[in-house]
Amino acid sequence: MGKIFLIEPHRILQQAIALSLFPEHDVQVAEAADAATVDALKEIELLIIDAAALRESDKLSPEINRAIQRSSIPTMWIDETESAGSPNRDKLAVVLKPIESGVFQSAIAGLLSSSNPKKDAKKSAVSGEPKTRKSKGVQQAGAEPIELVEIVEDEPASEKDK
Questions:
Q1: Mean pLDDT for each 10-residue chunk of the chain (162 residues)?
Q2: Residues 83, 103 contacting (CB under 8 angstroms)
Q3: Closest CA to 17 of 44, 65, 56, 49
Q4: Helical pair 11-21 and 101-115, crossing angle rounded to 10 deg
Q5: Do residues 74 and 96 lie in contact, with contact meaning Cβ atoms separated by under 8 Å?
Q6: Which of 14, 59, 142, 149 could join 54 in a cystine, given CB atoms 3.0 to 4.6 angstroms apart?
Q7: Which residues contact 133 (CB under 8 A, 6 or more apart)?
Q8: What pLDDT does 48 receive?
Q9: CB burial string 65-85: b at 16+ within 10 A, e below
Q10: Is the dihedral of CA 101, 102, 106, 107 positive or negative?
Q11: Where does residue 59 rank: exposed (0-12), middle (13-18), buried (19+ CB within 10 A)?
Q12: For residues 51 and 94, what is the distance between their CA atoms, to the nearest angstrom?
């Protein structure tokens, strides 16, 4: 069970993200944070920050950004665009809004596996790159549709016997 700290100002999104991580992870939620809060996170395995929502409500200060920059905690940065000013460091995954479940879950799995040395055999591509940017088109580009013709065979044996 991973300990995750979520900084999200909107209650509905707090609940949705926490529920998507439950029961595998223990999620602590805050509406906002300051640099001291980020620096004090010692037992946390993953930090999730909705930077776009914090920026909208003027709660994303340069001090928070610097605290995240120097932190060694794996961080998921949720934003609207890639060029919105995310910190530049290792163990950072940027997930773009609207959040897609598959991209969100794979980023979490990659960040948590990179923070846990016991799971080195299961490391994903997220942990191998110095800075990971995920967008909604990344996962869909490599997936091929399955043709139903390939799966369906001739008539079932019971109908041939009749």
A1: 91 94 93 86 92 92 89 93 79 92 93 63 36 39 50 55 54
A2: no
A3: 49
A4: 60
A5: no
A6: 59
A7: 82, 93, 94
A8: 96
A9: bebbeebebbbbbbbeeeeee
A10: negative
A11: middle
A12: 10
Q: What is the three-class DSSP state of 134?
A: strand
| Amino acid at position 152, single letter | V
CA-CA distances (angstroms) from residue 107 to 38, 55, 127, 139? 20, 22, 9, 11
CA distance 72 to 92: 10
CA 43, chain centre distance (Å): 19
CA distance 82 to 84: 6
CB 19 within 8 A of CB 58: no
Length of the chain (residues): 162
Handedness of CA 100, 59, 112, 18 (dihedral sign): negative
- Provide Rg for the chain, Cα atoms: 20
What are phi and psi for residue 156, nearest 5 degrees?
-60, 155
Phi, psi at 97, each rounded to 5°:
-80, 145
The CB density around residue 150, as the number of other CB atoms within 10 Å, is 7
Determine phi and psi for 64, rounding to 5 degrees: -65, -45
